[in-house]
């Protein structure tokens, strides 16, 4: 084992010569492994409940009998040339970490009948290791992964042998068949036996591995030499026996391999069959003489016990083979992460699954005649619960899903600071997958990519005919702060990197006689240029972590803090965000800057400093770093709460959504019928998401390209603004161009935070509909470029492979639109749609979402709402700091109370007390103020 020069392509051919995949391919097989891994986590939970323990242990081999880290594997000097592979070179001496264990997932006395196991971690140099896992029975009771997990699930939590056998006899036949059940029970009965000494047992690998160019082998560990000691007794007799032997001298085993001969005599895929053939000794494992009862030895044992052994901790040269081995990668990763409190199972009872299936069929029939938003509120709430489950199961696509099982190296240990608080770039939110949702992670998908989209019709023509604002159409139930707020949030969530137009651009020819200035200092051209996306990775973190205020990388985060990045507070100048030498405001995210964003980001920078002051008053011993990090947690959670229970019910103004969003944050209302329905269909939401554990619904968390599409809400922005003067001066009317870009900060300081909030809070934004795209954004200056955002919205949605509107609807389980008349009854709009699009199936997603008539009270379409329904709760449910670590030990009691009691109006009053009688509370904060 080691680092031999072989190519991945060559290795793929070599191992595929021996393997057969369930479903016909590795990729198809992988989909089943994830489900099996989740089932093993459920096994751990059941074992934990039996033990009455606060935390889970390994799903199997729960009791460590003995562990040490100073073993040595001495390779034979006369090793046959064909077995000299990787680090297994004649005369090599390799350090080894060793763990002996009993096989049961529930710890039992060493006197009980059980299998015994040994795990070796061979250190091959650098960070390369090879984990070898063996048990003292020559075959696996199960032939493949499905049988193994079915067996494990059947015996989970049972400690007595009769209880295990009865459960297997009752539960296995329907999952694996009668013949396999008989074989599994027979193997378990024979393998579960009493043992007097671990030093005298022979341990066998479960399945085969590649042995470099020598091909597949099974390996085993056979006893070679050990001191003789008197018999031991008691519940820990195996440890006592091995400790006595090591106190008297070295304990030695021979590592041997058995080579593949043929599929008949030495099958790779069937681990329940014993291989027939000669064995060859490769190396001698030496466990040196030592005292295992010293404090140092106990510390070593504790460290080894926390290791996550996995047969896939190896190199491609020694790749594990066979279905059971392939499943072990995902299963061992999930089990280890669960044991280390880094990943959590999402158990759905059979009752909940069956009820959802039944109720889902009923609602599917009902919704053909009456959509969910026209049902009575309580029925609509249950309808949404069932629909969200359907979306979670079918509309989360992992763009990085592997096509084959890959070898790995043991993952890094989470740094202490990442366990206790958010990192600047969003890494380590999921402690088992440090890159999940971090800055630079890929955007996910809710629908398969539509890669073959046409570039027709001309997006410039579509924008002119269907998006251009003819006259301002207001949204009377909202205020302009609601428009600023969603941009404030989007800047926290998503940002594609763009190529400058002078480097790589999409060129759109303009009609004869039309010209476009593509840069602020450029000449007019007959081509409109749009900078291409530079990949599909998010330039901010995917988490709800306030990155628009704090930044998405450590360097920027440090620049925004006082005392050269070491202070607890954020830098402000006379209560305003500072500006750099290039007049760009210094904040977490400053693209597309305008006065509404400046007001909100200033407000929450001040809020951060207020939280810091309160924390240091309440807890004088907190240092600046802990104060800063805790304040960031508090402010980020407060922003998430405001968006969930205030902004969303304001823009989706129905009683059903009021209740639904409250359920997301606070849990089910105190109404027995509603609570009963939620308990039966979605018990996860019974007490509110912040009181649950992280759940990624089987797909690593990320925000999606479809999520970006539905949040294209540019029509919210008015072109003209009136700013009041609270001192009695004349109102000031300004165009959007006057309060955006480099002009923003000077005007904002002149008006002031309070009057800016008062003015934006009293005015209405635009309605999210066709013919209402702001003029100012049709010729918007950004980073030296001039862009028509109406055209950009159309082009980018197409190029990112988001399906066209009708396919988008169908993918979200909505009926397809059959005719243009179902989208609009306006004759001019109808004529434009018919002129531009050959058929209803060709309509752009952006156009369809704006054309669709929203449900009563909704600020946007029901189609867009489907993505919102899925992703809004997912942003909370996946986030460790908004679920399992949303607790006083992390946030402090003061921080928890700050979030619990706080809302948008509280933040406004705290920093602008003169607005106390003006700002509305709850969702009214985003409705027009008095």
Structure description:
With 930 residues, the protein is of the alpha+beta class. Among the domains are: 332 residues, Catalase core domain (Catalase HpII,  Chain A, domain 1, Beta Barrel); 200 residues, Myeloperoxidase, subunit C, CATH 1.10.640. 39% of the residues lie in helices and 12% in strands. The chain is built from 31 helices and 19 strands. It has an eight-stranded antiparallel beta barrel with strand order 1-2-3-4-5-7-8-9. Strand 3 and strand 4 form a beta hairpin. Helix 2 runs parallel beside helix 3 and helix 3 packs across helix 4. The longest helix is centred in the last third of the chain and has 28 residues. The termini are far apart.
Write the layout of secondary structure elements.
Elements: H1 8-16, H2 26-51, E1 63-75, E2 93-102, E3 116-125, E4 128-135, H3 145-155, H4 161-171, H5 173-176, H6 178-191, E5 203-205, E6 209-210, E7 216-225, H7 237-248, E8 251-259, E9 279-287, H8 295-305, H9 323-339, H10 350-369, H11 377-394, H12 416-420, H13 459-467, H14 480-493, E10 496-498, E11 505-509, E12 516-517, E13 524-525, E14 527-531, E15 533-538, H15 547-550, H16 554-559, H17 562-565, H18 595-618, H19 624-651, H20 655-666, H21 672-681, H22 705-710, E16 720-723, E17 732-735, H23 744-751, H24 753-762, E18 780-782, E19 785-787, H25 789-799, H26 805-811, H27 827-836, H28 845-851, H29 862-877, H30 888-901, H31 904-911
Antiparallel strand pairs: 1-2, 1-9, 2-3, 3-4, 4-5, 5-7, 6-7, 7-8, 8-9, 10-15, 11-14, 12-13, 16-17, 18-19
Helix pairs in contact: 2-3, 2-9, 3-4, 10-11, 11-20, 11-21, 11-29, 13-25, 13-27, 14-18, 18-19, 18-24, 18-31, 19-20, 19-30
InterPro entries: A_dioxygenase, Catalase_core, Catalase_sf, Haem_peroxidase_animal, Haem_peroxidase_sf, Haem_peroxidase_sf_animal, Oxylipin_biosynth_metab
Protein name: Catalase
GO molecular function: catalase activity; heme binding; metal ion binding; oxidoreductase activity, acting on single donors with incorporation of molecular oxygen, incorporation of two atoms of oxygen
